[in-house]
């Protein structure tokens, strides 16, 4: 007779564990969908950049992204916005990329130190 209560407890533990696993799977599914959407958006952005930038301009942009990641992302967003709005005719070459970088570059702060 002592086997029945143990089996009931064991079955109850199994049930609780199954419920926990299902909850994790449901919450993990939303994260996976969000991550897949992010990857798809990133792939579309890279395709647009490949389509509208020459190899030299892409190399320059990658160099900027390595040294200043936030600024590089800002430039990428600007190029994607220009491409989607149809304001880019042809491809952006290295000279045009330099010009775009100068326009988007944050104002550098200058410090004047005066010694007395």
Question: Portion of residues in helices?
Answer: over 70%
Number of strands: 0
CATH topology: Helicase, Ruva Protein, domain 3
Q: Note the total helix count.
A: 4
Average pLDDT, to the nearest integer? 84
Our estimate of the beta-strand percent is under 5%
Terminal residue distance: 97 Å
Largest sheet: none
Low-pLDDT regions: none
Tell me the CATH architecture: Orthogonal Bundle
What does this entry look like structurally?
The chain has four helices and no strands. The chain has a single domain (3-103), classed as PDCD5, DNA-binding domain (Helicase, Ruva Protein, domain 3, Orthogonal Bundle), CATH 1.10.8. Helix 1 (3-52) crosses helix 3. The radius of gyration is 27 Å and the shape is elongated. The longest helix has 50 residues, at 3-52. Helix content is 78%, strand content 0%. It has helices at 3-52, 55-67, 69-85, 94-104. The mean pLDDT is 84. It has 116 residues and is an all-alpha fold. The relative contact order is 0.09. Keywords: DNA-binding. It holds the Pfam family dsDNA_bind. Residues 1-46 are annotated as: Disordered. Residues 35-46 have a biased composition (Low complexity). Belongs to the PDCD5 family.
């Amino acid at each position: 007779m002592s086997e029945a209560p143990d089996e009931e407890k064991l079955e109850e533990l199994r049930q609780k564990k199954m419920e926990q696993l299902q909850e994790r799977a449901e919450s993990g599914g939303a994260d996976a969908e969000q991550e897949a959407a992010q990857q798809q958006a990133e792939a579309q952005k890279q395709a647009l950049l490949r389509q509208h930038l020459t190899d030299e301009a892409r190399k320059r942009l990658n160099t900027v992204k390595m040294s200043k990641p936030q600024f590089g992302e800002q430039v990428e967003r600007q190029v994607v916005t220009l491409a989607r709005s149809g304001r880019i005719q042809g491809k952006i070459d290295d000279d045009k990329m330099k010009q775009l970088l100068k326009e988007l570059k944050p104002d550098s702060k200058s410090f004047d130190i005066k010694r007395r």
